[in-house]
Amino acid sequence: xxxxxxxxxxxxxxxxxxxxxxxxxxxxxxxxxxxxxxxxxxxxxxxxxxxxxxxxxxxxxxxxxxxxxxxxxxxxxxxxxxxxxxxxxxxxxxxxxxxxxxxxxxxxxxxxxxxxxxxxxxxxxxxxxxxxxxxxxxxxxxxxxxxxxxxxxxxxxxxxxxxxxxxxxxxxxxxxxxxxxxxxxxxxxxxxxxxxxxxxxxxxxxxxxxxxxxxxxxxxxxxxxxxxxxxxxxxxxxxxxxxxxxxxxxxxxxxxxxxxxxxxxxxxxxxxxx
Length: 274
Hints:
CATH topology of the largest domain: Glutaredoxin
């Protein structure tokens, strides 16, 4: 038992080899342990083996690239402006107000230089000029753009006339309906989009003297305001609201054009339940 304890102490490094007591019947393995010289640095090494974990080396710190000088100056300018503003707010004497106003004027001048450079590049770089791809800012060019847009919208509206129509819900005693009816009639004649007038009180209008009676469609469409105008595809019984109340001719044109030019080949209509 004592021999085993000595061997364990030797293996764990607690007992130097030269302090092993002499014993009878030492095995060949034990004799080999005593005869094998160990380097002097062995005793200075950390404990190693299956039961000891060695931490991985710490990663080398990554060098942070220097920030651009312009960015540092911009942040310093923002901080200085905010400081002057707070000082002037808390103590609005002439000196503090003038200091803030002068510094703000300096920043406004820098902004003007930036804006001029931006505009110059836009003029010389067509792909960055929104006026060449969208609605122009130039008055004369904007007029040409609007004319072409209206022509495209008018063609789209006339294209609806082949399989679409307009449902007009009105009342004979409604002054807004009387004012809207001539506008809608001119629109119908110009673009060929047929109007289906439906009277909620059985009375007609001068432009639509023989309307159909309400068969419950107003309730199904939840039309609580008149005049109410809907775009419909009679073949499929699909209906899309256009607008409610009195609308000007330009509003009527733009709303129906928006439905006619919506993404897809036809406007997205909701099906009416019979």
